[in-house]
Amino acid sequence: MHLRFTQPIILLACILISPGCENSVKYNWADEPLETIIIDNDEKIILVDFETESCVWCDRLDADTFTDQKVIDFAKQNLISKKIDAEKGDGPKQKKKYRVRGYPTILFLDSQGVEIDRIVGYRPPEEFLSELNRIKNGENTISEIISRYEQNKHHYPTQISLAEKFVTLNLPDSAKSILDDIYRKQKKKSQLDFTIAFRVSKLYYRIGSLDTSIDLLDQIVDSGVDSSDSGYFYGLLYKAKRDTDTDRLLQYSYLTENIDRKKQAYWQIIRILRKEKKDPDLEADIYQKAVELYGSDYKYLPSLLNSFAWRMTQLEKKLDVALEKINMALEYGEDIKILDTKAEVLWKLKRIDEAVRIIEKCILLDPKKKYYKDQKNKFLGSAT
Predict the structure, then answer these.
(1) For residue 50, what is the enclosing H or E element?
(2) Whole-angstrom Cα distance, residue 197 to residue 231?
(3) How far apart are CA 118 and CA 106, in angstroms?
(4) Each residue of 256-271: pLDDT tens digit?
(5) Is residue 205 left, alpha or beta, with left meaning phi > 0 and alpha meaning psi from -120 to 50?
(6) Closest Cα partner for 106 from 116, 33, 97, 126?
(7) Hey, how many other C-beta atoms are within 10 angstroms of the C-beta on 272?
(8) Residues 6+ positions from 278 with CB-CB distance below 8 Å
């Protein structure tokens, strides 16, 4: 799958205009192998950033967060940092060892190489810095939660926190053991605790126990403790995934006036249709509806528009709409990935000369990347 992303051009402009600017925002990454870092380190926390070349949010993390001066200052004082490409060198081995399944995944290891905590997914600078301070202070880390759990194994909030941590660490069996204990206790009660039951159902979903999650949501609905209808809505979401049937969820999405739920429903429908490779017309329609729910103030709108446009080139649907959306994305700056998507859209529209001109811009911006040259050859080859 060809992933698309938007990378801000501000940093590039800064580097071109002022060489000193680059130095002021440079994050220090260790060159040594991770094993060597662990052996030589005796006091600092080790940050390990797992990424891939095609990872959308890895690029955003590099562009936004690892260029932030406060993050850099914290790292200098407290961290030894190592980047690992999960698809190259010893990356696959390290990925397996540390149970990494998505990108970016940021591990935090102690001086013995034992995992303290992890962050999964993109975080903007302020949020990332807050997480760094939390981990440094030993708050809500693996060992801290386990310590609380050992003191009182029947405290629901601590049990749920531990299950959540196990889910984040990709330890589904450990998480399930905790969740099953909570579930058994809840079933014995005369009335479900909505907050506990709802959180547990979502965690069951995250570890792939769909039937148990749905059963718990059905109990929430039947018990009448859910005034927000959250149990019913998430039941629809999860049943759609389990049964690969989007009809009821689609009907709900058309009827609800709740924009957040409408978004969730649309994205679930898109995921199901994409995975099952069925009804590309419906997928294209729902994708357009989903994108148009986000206003111009949405921080990641260019990336969203870019992803929509690229997907339309794969489906070969709504190409005129795709061109309109990609032009909107380019209003935020001529990012190379967005230019590449525009070239692909133009090529699909048989506007080959325009596609070639756009992809030549990409080649000028990154002359070493073979992909853009291959794209140009593909466009020219189709014209003969």
Answers:
(1) strand 45-51
(2) 9
(3) 5
(4) 999 999 999 999 999 9
(5) alpha
(6) 116
(7) 19
(8) none
pLDDT digits (tens, 9 = 90+) for 90-100: 999 999 999 99
The length of the chain, given as a count of residues: 384
Residue 16's pLDDT band, with cuts at 50, 70 and 90, is: very low
H helix or E strand, kind and range, residue 117:
strand 115-120
- For 380, the token pair is 């020219």
Contact 104, 51 (CB under 8 A): yes
CA 301 – CA 330 distance, rounded (Å):
11
Phi, psi for residue 77 in degrees, rounded to 5: -80, -30
Sign of the Cα torsion 183, 188, 194, 195 reads negative
Structure tokens at 64: 């936004």
- How far, in Å, CA of 354 to CA of 31, rounded? 42
CA distance 148 to 295: 43
For residue 272, what are the CA distances in angstroms to 58, 278, 322?
Answer: 25, 9, 21
Q: Say if residues 340 and 3 touch (Cβ distance below 8 Å).
A: no
Contact 26, 12 (CB under 8 A): no
Distance of alpha carbon 201 from alpha carbon 31, whole angstroms: 43
CA dist 365 and 209 (Å) reads 47
Report how far residue 328's alpha carbon sits from residue 6's, in angstroms, rounded to the nearest whole number: 13
User: Please, which residues have CB within 8 angstroms of residue 341's CB and are 6 or more apart in sequence?
Assistant: 4, 306, 309, 310, 313, 326, 329
Helix residue ranges, H only, 193-318: 194-206, 210-223, 230-243, 247-255, 259-276, 280-291, 301-315
Which residues partner with 45 through β-bridges? 79
Q: For residue 144, which of 153, 135, 154 has the smallest C-alpha distance?
A: 135
Q: Give mean pLDDT, residues 242-247.
A: 95
Give the span between the Cα atoms of 236 and 70, in whole angstroms: 43
Domains of the chain listed by start with CATH number: 10-139 (3.40.30.10), 294-384 (1.25.40.10)
Handedness of CA 63, 65, 68, 71 (dihedral sign): negative
